[in-house]
Specification:
The protein has 113 residues and is mostly helical. The protein is built from seven helices and no strands. The radius of gyration is 17 Å and the shape is elongated.
Length: 113
Amino acid sequence: PYRRQRQMCIRDRFKSLVLAHYMKANDTQELADLCGYGITTFRRIFKEEFGTAVYQWLLKKRSEHILYRLSFPYIPFHDIIEEFNFASPQQFYRFCKANLGDSPTNLRKKHGQ
């Protein structure tokens, strides 16, 4: 019982670390570093806990957050580009087309509040 409790505690701690740091991470290596794990161990534990690859999960979360931010028409694109560390408006545009299926402008029109 104690060992099982301890394992759950470690898993909860791992998930808490991931959820606390993922917004600051641009890739798997950065997230592993922020959480204090080596990349191989981090990927293994992440897959066990979240059931998916780190990169896919990060991409999904980033996409969700960007779509949410786009739903507020008063937030300038420039602010979103900066907030999510895009190197240029073109990179942001390509990300939206590839991962959200449309341009930032069209997404804002579709999902605006």
